[in-house]
Write a structure and sequence with these properties.
It is a single chain. The protein is mostly helical. The chain folds into 2 domains: 416 residues, no CATH class; 82 residues, no CATH class. It has 22 helices and no strands. The longest helix has 40 residues.
Length: 543
């Protein structure tokens, strides 16, 4: 089964933007924090950028919300289109799908710490960023490693010993189960399930939790399910004005998403964003707007076929495929090789911008390369292992075919043609047609009499539909479209017309149906023919 390409691509973009977010925090912190005391560019460029809508590109909290929403969407969509066994296995294996890749990366970092392979503190002394100076300061014991990887990262939260990016893995873990539960409740429910969905989304929003983004993902998946199932929410064919309205709505949603996503998380807004500073004090303003922006972004892109087609292209699909590896690996890569390149470059020429540019390029290339290798050598292998283990629960041997690991449980996802923008392939012929073809013996030749030996006992359901066409063949009647062929046969001197001429497509009979009205009409015609024949016999007898 195929995947939802533009969803995968958007996950990859989210992880890449999170990488850029951490790069800004490490080397241009004023562009995020709005702190004028730590500027590295001339003028107030970094301060202006921190409060600009363009900052949405590196607004980490927004892209984390997007990533969580997409995770909730994929999980809910899988529940809606799969049977209970399939998503039951996904629930059981969820912890291992998330934990095992983290275990591998954390173990590598554990080894690197003991080898003193990180240079983030040296770089932090130049950039004056606490994000660099506060990381990888202590070596952990192996016992601590096991506790952090198996327990703290998922159940306690804020386990940043092996990566600053691991703080949100616990929310990803709990949000996954929330999405499973909500989607299971809505699998066979009507549209009123949207009321509790909205209620839970509001609760999580007021609690400043990313779980709200997971609920948003479930809501979008349910709306798509309702449209596909033809419920009361079913969209009437989008043609003409309706398609134009949908397109405009999608563009407006994406524009508002970008504007809200640019709301500063740390800097104090002094531009138009100050008009949004009127939420209750207990609500984290930036997180509230960022999660609303994530909802608008995904809902808007869904209405933009061209955007979905672009996101479905090979480069973006590749980025989506390695998204989890990018998220897990980018901090260790940046704080080791990236910082080493930065320090050496800055010490050699003293050019800060050149050093940071080299650091960014090395980090991007190396992270993408390692994430690709990680996907091939680690994630896929772990996916096969998990699949085989879960198959034991059903007394069924797991398949050894290539198995694509995905922490979002979308490795066997059905791709909805509406979501991907692709044309749905033609449906296979019905079982009735197959039965009709199976009923014709393989020894059928060009002789009409061969049909005398054909039996249709193997296809009782089709017998009523094909009896008349077969009768027409036996009686040597010819469809109107084939009269020229009959005339040609008569001109060549053939005594009988070959009803199995290769030029004739017997599939013409596959769509013939025989209704009760047709039977009544045939009976009337036969009665008239019989009466006419009787009258003719009487007249001949009288003569």
């Amino acid at each position: 089964m195929r995947r939802i390409k533009w969803i995968d691509a958007l996950k990859g973009i989210a992880c890449l933007c999170i990488l850029l977010h951490h790069f800004i925090l490490c080397f241009y912190p004023a562009a995020y924090l709005g702190d004028a005391a730590n500027l590295h560019l001339k003028g107030n460029t970094e301060i202006r950028f921190a409060t600009s809508p363009l900052s949405f590109i590196v607004m980490g909290d927004f892209w984390v919300a997007v990533f969580c929403l997409l995770s909730g969407f994929v999980i809910a969509h899988k529940v809606f289109v799969s049977d209970e066994k399939e998503y039951g296995d996904a629930v059981i294996g969820r912890y291992f799908r998330l934990m095992l890749p983290v275990f591998v990366v954390s173990f590598i970092v554990f080894i690197m710490l003991h080898l003193n392979a990180f240079f983030n503190i040296d770089a932090g002394n130049i950039t004056l960023s606490s994000w660099l100076t506060d990381a990888y300061t202590e070596k952990t014991t192996f016992g601590d490693f096991l506790y952090i990887v198996f327990i703290k990262t998922w159940f306690t939260g804020m386990a940043t010993e092996y990566s600053h990016a691991f703080w949100m893995l616990s929310e990803l873990f709990y949000g996954s189960f929330a999405a499973f539960l909500l989607a299971s409740a809505g699998k066979k429910s009507n549209k009123f399930i949207l009321i509790p969905y909205a209620f839970f989304a509001l609760l999580f929003l007021l609690d400043n939790s990313h779980l709200a983004a997971f609920v948003f993902g479930v809501i979008i998946a349910y709306v798509i399910k309702a449209e596909r199932d033809g419920g009361s929410l079913k969209a009437k064919g989008e043609h003409g004005n309706r398609a134009l309205i949908s397109l405009i709505a999608g563009i407006v949603m994406v524009i508002f998403a970008i504007l809200l996503a640019g709301y500063p998380q740390e800097a104090v807004p002094e531009n138009l964003y100050r008009l949004l500073n009127h939420l209750p004090e207990r609500i984290w303003t930036s997180r509230f707007y960022h999660m609303i922006a994530a909802l608008l972004l995904v809902a808007g892109i869904r209405r933009l076929p061209t955007t979905k087609w672009i996101l479905g292209s090979a480069p973006f699909r590749f980025l989506g495929k390695i998204s989890y590896g990018v998220y897990l690996l980018h901090i260790p890569v940046m704080y080791s090789v990236g910082c080493l390149v930065f320090v050496k470059s800055f010490e050699s020429n003293g050019k800060y911008k050149t050093a940071t540019l080299l650091c960014l390029l090395v980090t991007l290339v190396l992270t993408i390369l390692l994430a690709w290798l990680f996907n091939i050598l680690v994630e896929k292998w772990l996916g096969v292992l998990i699949k085989k283990c879960t198959s034991l629960l059903h007394d069924k041997e797991a398949s050894d075919e290539e198995y694509e690991f995905d922490h979002e449980d979308s490795f066997e996802e059905v791709e909805d043609p509406e979501l991907s923008g692709e044309v749905m392939p033609e449906e296979t012929e019905t079982s009735e047609v197959t039965a009709f073809e199976a009923a014709i013996p393989e020894t059928v030749t060009s002789e009409t009499e061969t049909y005398e030996t054909a039996t249709f006992e193997a296809a009782p359901v089709v017998e009523e539909k094909i009896s008349e066409p077969v009768k027409a063949l036996k009686e040597k009647t010819v469809p109107e479209a084939d009269l020229p062929l009959k005339a040609e046969a008569e001109e060549t001197g053939r005594e009988e017309w070959d009803f199995h001429n290769d030029d004739i497509d017997i599939s013409q009979f596959k769509e013939i149906t025989w209704s009760p009205e047709d039977e009544e009409k045939q009976a009337e015609d036969e009665a008239k023919d019989e009466a006419a024949k009787t009258d003719e016999d009487k007249q001949n007898k009288a003569e």
